[in-house]
Amino acid sequence: MQRFEIRNHLYQQCMYSASDEAQLINDCKQQVAAAQQQLYESYARKMMGVCMRYVNDYETARDLLHDGFIKVFTHISSFQGEGSFEGWLRRVFVTTALEYLRKNDVLRESYDISTSYNLQTEEETIIERISADELRAIIGTLPTGFRTVFNLYAVEGYSHKEIGKLLSITESTSRSQFARAKNLLKQKIVARYG
What we know:
Blueprint: H1 3-13, H2 21-29, H3 33-55, H4 58-75, H5 85-103, H6 125-129, H7 132-140, H8 144-155, H9 160-167, H10 171-193
């Protein structure tokens, strides 16, 4: 057998089914390269989506994806099987994105909203006509601080208290940023689709 055929044969023998997640994780803890490759291929697309929600720049998100998987493989032994593995992964990638944002001090950016714009009942039907991809794109245009708090609260399900701890801000600041993000999001939706 040639080297490529041997590698391919070994890789095929190491394929994991969805029911073998525990074995896949265990093999990753043992630094089995085929298991690490399988883990990467299984979760890279979802975790790239997580990264894109926070930085909204493809190249930066790819860097965060890379950094996140390095952290995953370095710290996978800390996963004890409590809760879902995907949830643990998601926390690693959210933390990686937040560290990047803190390091680059983009969470301190503010955006002045001089007017409060509320959707009227008839305008709320606009939301029903927007696809998930269109909504993600509009969320991506929010200022970084607003987008970060919005994603943590509305998408990831963190409480304002947890967000405050993650971002080193007060709980009330988190609430305020979320309210402003919602207001600005409403303005952008109405301006685009209203």
